[in-house]
């Protein structure tokens, strides 16, 4: 059995919403990460992953994201406690709210960072750099597609 985890690559004005995980977290404590969390059991339900990422971002940062997020990538890993996790990253667009560490037990800090700033951070793990690079690539493709349709 897998734990299903979702993360939001939230963009706004050329920057990405990044959290510094609490040092108390059992997995990746003190490291930079996208904001997200585990899907909860809901029985028969639709859009569970999308609703989960919206809920987690709002609960952890106070930021509301727009509907219409897009799949970026997925991966699997095993936590230090031995749990198998499937992680799904969505490209999300900022709607409103001031980013702050609403749940300090989960994120010590919450900040907006450019892709360059993220990639230069020593506490940015490889899985974050891989996910944020894929999100940045998808965002650029979307923007190029929009420009192409206007011509």
From TrEMBL:
Indicate what this protein is called per its UniProt record. NUDIX domain-containing protein
Q: Which domain of life is it from?
A: Bacteria
The Nudix hydrolase domain extends over: 1-136
Checking Gene3D superfamilies in the record gives: Nucleoside Triphosphate Pyrophosphohydrolase
Q: Which family does it belong to?
A: Belongs to the Nudix hydrolase family.
Pfam families per the UniProt record, alphabetical: NUDIX
Task: Note the InterPro entries from the entry.
Answer: NUDIX_hydrolase-like_dom_sf, NUDIX_hydrolase_dom
